[in-house]
Amino acid sequence: MPDLAELWSPIRLTLILATVTTLVLLIVATPVAWWLARSGARWKEAVAAVVALPLVLPPTVLGFYLLILLGPDGPGGWIASLGGARSLAFTFTGLVIGSVVYSLPFVVQPIRNAFEAMGERPLEVAATLRAGPWDAFWSVAVPLARRGFLTGAMLGFAHTMGEFGVILMIGGNIPGETRVLSIAIYDYVETLRWTEAHLLAGGMVVFAFAVILAMLVLEKRVGRARP
Amino acid sequence: MRPTAHPLSTLAVFLLLLGAAPAALAGEVRVAVAANFTDAAKEIGTAFDAATDHTAVFSFASTGQLFTQIAGGAPFDVFLAADRARPQRAIDDGLADPDSRFTYAQGRLALYSREPGLVTGPDVLDRTDLGRLAIANPETAPYGAAAVQVLANLGKRERFDDHLVRGANIAQTFQFVATGNARLGFVAASQIAGHEDGSRWMVPDQLHTPIAQDAVLLKAAADQSAARAFLAFLKGPQAAEVLDKYGYAPGG
Hints:
Helices cover 78% and strands 0% of the residues of chain A. Chain A is mostly helical. Chain A has a single domain, classed as MetI-like fold (Orthogonal Bundle), CATH 1.10.3720. Chain A is globular, with a radius of gyration of 20 Å. In chain B, 39% of the residues lie in helices and 21% in strands. Chain B contains 10 helices and 11 strands. In chain B, helix 2 packs antiparallel against helix 10 (237-245). Residues 20-25 of chain B have low confidence and may be disordered.
């Protein structure tokens, strides 16, 4: 019988990582998506391309650069030194940074699409009703774009749950801190502990299916309720 | 009626050509190599290619990873492990030729930091400003298992229990130390044999069970003669020179 506490630790860690990452992603992605949707700047598609890079780059490229940037030769090492450490690699914070970069396009794109689909009109109406830009953003734009936020949040969460390559390179496999689900599965397969591997891998399949199904169903519902 | 080539016959010719391809590549030996032996294997491979009409192609990973791949049917001809257990298991599982097994090298472990002057001996492990110590995953990498034994024998195991980072193999462990993300780590002596920078302590052999590295011929080997030629070359004087250069003791 597999040790359930040992199995639970990476599941718990991965859920926390995905939750924190999703929250940070929503905070980071929203202004980026807003700017991309509304700006007239000619080079905005270049910014959009930079945001989308993790879609195309192999995780090893991100992992390699992160390993250097998070370490004593990069800004991460400087930030870490404020807390008395030498590197942000091998830390939960490091994983959040890596995951945010890695999943950014999955959150920015749906929100940007939603902002663009909304058009200028609702904000113009809000302005004539003397709503300030900040007020109009929160009470008009965000509710209208809720479908984009929902899709972005779910994709960001699910993508972080399944992240592997970047974490393999910057995590260092520390139980309870950086040993996430995908790394635990990798270890179990490599050490021929297939019962544990099956339990976790099977769980991931069910989880991924549930997320995608929930997203499809919710998108329809939210879409239908749209005024 | 004009005879036209049936589409299927074109396909048949194509498949025949595909089937012939391996024959054209005859003399290639695909070697699964434990990560610690990477540099030495490349050098032995160059000498092997020059000395015979065969070519050696290498794949590098931890011994545990390679064994899993071999058990899964990976197309390797020769397995150069970093321990004796996995080649034995390959034999037990009917994947390898029992008569072909031999110890090609004895590995050595080193405690290494890229900071000059930091590592002068095992005493460095008493320092409290080390942060995390890098080792290879003890469950898949024999050098990681040896590192854990060294820590235990030095009475430092508990102290580092919560202060370890584990590389997926010894190559990644070295990379953690080389990038400075880990200040200190147990690496393979072969990885630092080629240069003098940083600081190091060569771990005495008696602090861990010997890292006897076994080689074995896999039954799936497509070209048995090339594979056997490679194993013979590995036992020869040219390989012995490379082994010595990279800090390995000869196998027995």
